[in-house]
Amino acid sequence: MADKDDIREGKDFGIGIPQENRPFFVKGNGALDWGMQNRLARIFNLVSGRTVMLAFDHGYFQGPTTGLERIDLGIVPLIPYADVLMCTRGALRSVIPPSATKAVVLRCSGGQSILTELSREAIAVDIEDAIRLNAAAITTQIYIGAEYEHQSIRNLIQLIDTGNRYGIPTMAVTGVGAEMKRDARYFGLATRIAAELGAHYVKSYFVEEGFERVCAGCPVPIVIAGGKKLPELDALTMAYQALDQGAAGVDMGRNIFQSDDPVAMIQAVAAVVHKKEKPGKALQLYQQLKAGNVPDRSRLARSS
Ligand code: R5P
Questions:
Q1: Mutate which of 51, 56, 58, 108 to test ligand 1's pocket (most atoms within 8 Å of Cβ)?
Q2: Residues with catalytic annotation?
Q3: What residue owns the CA closest to ligand 1's atom 9?
Q4: Is 171 left (phi over 0), alpha (psi -120 to 50) or beta?
Q5: Which residues contact 159 (CB under 8 A, 6 or more apart)?
Q6: Kind and range of the H or E element at 71?
Q7: Which of 2-16, 157-171, 210-224 comes out lowest in average pLDDT?
Q8: How confident is the model at residue 304 (pLDDT cuts 50, 70, 90)?
């Protein structure tokens, strides 16, 4: 119990030093409540303002994807080097150690498979379960121009509204229907629609022509998916160009976990994202790590 006789009057009120009101560092997210901003600050690195999201949610519609046959063997060793784990609740609960304190962006859509129409998704996780799993953000896909465009947009609206109720941000994923042309016009349209509907950040693909306009026209951060496996230098170059043109990070899967050395590759990607390393230098780092010439890999991850 407090000793009432010893209550001392405060004396250092810092008179003359104005209390700082720092602007929040994540693009377009300056007017959110504390919980929302706190979660976004777990996703985007406070120093670089960027993020390395490790995507391994592919199984939710395409089953045991190459590199993800055993998430315990293929993904768990990569966790120390990622800022964010993007995955399904099934993978999280069954394989990811709860002692991993990385931010989780939870895949909350599903209901289709590679054997049917991809755009026909539903919301597949209740917000209570996302809270139970301590998700830093929730995510669903929109398929602009595809057969079930409207349904996928409704899913996004529903997710944003429920997330807003509990202070959990939503990342919109721009899925691409089989017939869609992957160009700046398409991604400019899809990312802008997602942001206008209230998504807190958006995942897009990189395009060689006009990506700068896609980023500039989207009022919240864009992170890029890696897409199909490329040679390591090409994947690092794609990440570098995307960041240089305004992206705020990567949400990369296959180009990391299908690499010959995923542990080395994720560190090379992180060097591009957080240290603005040029692709050639990042490839050198990849090769050195792969050859075992950089002894303490975890030290590199910690410094980023
Ligand atoms: C699709 O399955 C998911 O949205 C992936 O998370 C996304 O495509 C990123 O993975 P990748 O870099 O392999 O394209």
A1: 58
A2: 203
A3: 225
A4: beta
A5: 108, 109, 123, 138, 139, 140, 170
A6: helix 71-74
A7: 2-16
A8: very low
